[in-house]
């Protein structure tokens, strides 16, 4: 990890706009275990008559969760030492599981509902950035998590397309 990674996280933590704290905390908590994505997928599956959406998002979420846990066990990277506004997780910092699950699920939702692509990727980016804001990840953790999540999401889509599941 470069010094810039630590310095940027320290700058972010030191320059929070505390009026945003409740919103960012709610966002970061809602994305734990991909809950916000599962709720979004369930609602969209019903309202937009895309029943396969929930199952594919659940698969992407599960693969992203389990694979980032495995990577964290191997990397064992310490969390930032900054003033956090949420409890600091005991797991390794690298990669960000929130970023990974958010981008994996966003890729799936965007494939099923292309008109919502911008909104779902904006939500994924906000979740990823929330992990920096609350002080529990370094920037490289979040970038790596988002990239890994994109790989997971694309892989899950490729798998379900081979199974002839109607996507997009």
Automatic annotation (TrEMBL):
Transmembrane segments: 26-48, 142-160
InterPro entries per record: PAP2/HPO (IPR000326), PAP2/HPO_sf (IPR036938)
The UniProt record lists the keyword Membrane: yes
Domain Phosphatidic acid phosphatase type 2/haloperoxidase, residue spans: 54-157
Pfam families with a match to the protein in the record: PAP2
Cellular component annotations (GO), alphabetically ordered: plasma membrane
GO MF term (any one): hydrolase activity
Membrane topology: Multi-pass membrane protein
Keyword DNA repair (UniProt): no
Keywords: Cell membrane, Hydrolase, Membrane, Transmembrane, Transmembrane helix
Compartments, as annotated in UniProt: Cell membrane
Protein name: Unannotated protein
Taxon lineage: unclassified sequences, metagenomes, ecological metagenomes
């Amino acid at each position: 990890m470069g010094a810039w990674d630590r310095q940027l996280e320290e700058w972010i933590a030191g320059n929070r706009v505390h009026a945003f704290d409740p919103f960012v905390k709610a966002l970061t908590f809602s994305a734990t275990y991909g809950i916000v994505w599962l709720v979004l997928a369930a609602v969209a599956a019903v309202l937009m008559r895309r029943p396969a959406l929930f199952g594919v998002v659940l698969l992407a979420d599960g693969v992203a969760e389990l694979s980032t846990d495995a990577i964290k066990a191997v990397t064992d990277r310490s969390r930032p030492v900054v003033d956090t506004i949420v409890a600091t997780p005991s797991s390794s910092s690298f990669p960000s599981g929130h970023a990974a699950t958010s981008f994996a699920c966003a890729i799936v939702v965007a494939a099923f509902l292309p008109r919502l692509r911008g909104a779902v990727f904006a939500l994924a980016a906000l979740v990823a950035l929330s992990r920096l804001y609350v002080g529990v990840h370094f920037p490289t953790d979040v970038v790596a998590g988002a990239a890994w999540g994109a790989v997971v999401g694309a892989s899950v889509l490729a798998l379900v397309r081979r199974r002839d599941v109607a996507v997009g």
